[in-house]
Design a protein that fits this description.
- The protein has 306 residues and is α/β, with parallel strands linked by helices.
- It is built from ten helices and 15 strands.
- Strands 1, 2, 3, 4, 5 and 11 form a six-stranded mixed beta sheet that branches. It has a five-stranded mixed beta sheet with strand order 8-7-9-6-10.
- The longest helix has 15 residues.
- 39% of the residues are buried.
């Protein structure tokens, strides 16, 4: 049975994602995203499932930085999971009793309007995860009166759902990824996504445009671009890219090679099936056959057969 680490404890949205991405795997809860990824790197687990981005909050910075700087891991699958938060309390607690709320920082942001409207006098405190918040609130001696977490966390820890769907948006989705140690890539499906991290060779006018041009001229559509600080000073960044296609596709391979030529470093993060099943629109001249024909023509030219 494969073993997969995830952001624990039991009852997190990440565990729910793992149950879908690897339904027959043994689940190993980790204290944070870094610990889950380290378990995969060190062979304590066959892989890990971690959140990558949220439709309201954007990228999960811990995950982005770990994939960029830590020992290499490859994304092999993704999942788009709707996120619904509940207000969970110990049995007998009423809205009037709630003075301190415990939850994950992402949930604090995504439920800000609810807490301001329904619990304006309550203090909201950040927790390592929504499930950890529920676990803490379940303790009789807990200093917290309520947790904002997934409903399953309430079931796990004996809490009562005082209010359902307390998120400010009902259509919030979190993108989770399954990662593993470097190895063979998933086969192309025709509906794929590729992820990588690119580091500028130097900071000069048009540096970002040069990177984007490598995608544009080959008809590769970006689905996400996000800058992160390198830590070397204010104004110095590297870039996370997600884009349509598989590295085995000629247009994608050419774009990745182009980035490698102009960047100081490129870290490939994987090519894997898209969770939404969308297929890219291939521009004229950028299909695999077009690249093959152009390569054959160039070979004839170089041999003098014009």
């Amino acid at each position: 049975m494969p073993r997969f680490a995830y952001l624990g404890p039991e009852g997190t949205f990440t565990e729910e994602a793992l149950r879908i991405l690897a339904p027959h795997a043994e689940r190993l809860p980790s204290v944070n995203v870094s610990a889950a990824l380290d378990a995969a790197r060190q062979g304590e687990a066959d892989g890990a499932v971690v959140p990558l981005e949220n439709s309201l909050e954007g990228g999960i910075t811990t995950t982005l930085d770990e994939l960029a700087w830590g020992e290499p891991l490859l994304i092999v699958a993704e999942l788009l999971l709707p996120v619904e938060f509940s207000l969970l309390v110990r049995p007998g607690t009423t809205m009037r009793d709630i003075k301190r709320i415990f939850t994950h920082p992402a949930a604090i942001t995504q439920c800000r309007n609810f807490t301001a409207r329904e619990l304006p006098g309550a203090v909201v405190v950040a927790a390592p995860s929504t499930a950890a918040a529920a676990q803490e609130v379940a303790l009789p001696s807990s200093p917290y009166d309520a947790a904002i977490a997934a409903r399953i966390a309430g079931d796990n820890y004996g809490l009562v759902e005082l209010a359902a769907n307390v998120g400010d948006r009902s259509d919030t989705v979190t993108r989770f990824v399954k990662v593993a140690r470097p190895g063979p890539l998933p086969e192309p499906t025709g509906s794929d996504r590729t992820s990588l991290v690119a580091f500028l060779a130097d900071d000069h006018p048009g540096a970002l445009l040069e990177m984007l041009t490598e995608f544009s001229v080959r008809g590769v559509n970006l689905t996400r671009i996000e800058s992160r600080p390198t830590g070397d000073g204010i104004g110095r960044y590297f870039f996370h890219f997600d884009f349509e296609g598989h590295v085995a596709d000629a247009r994608v391979g050419e774009a990745v090679s182009g980035l490698h030529r102009i960047c100081s470093d490129v870290r490939f993060l994987g090519s894997y099936p898209r969770a939404d099943g969308l297929t890219p629109q291939i521009k004229r001249g950028t299909a695999d056959g077009d690249f093959a024909e152009a390569g054959s023509w160039l070979s004839r030219v170089r041999s003098g057969r014009v």
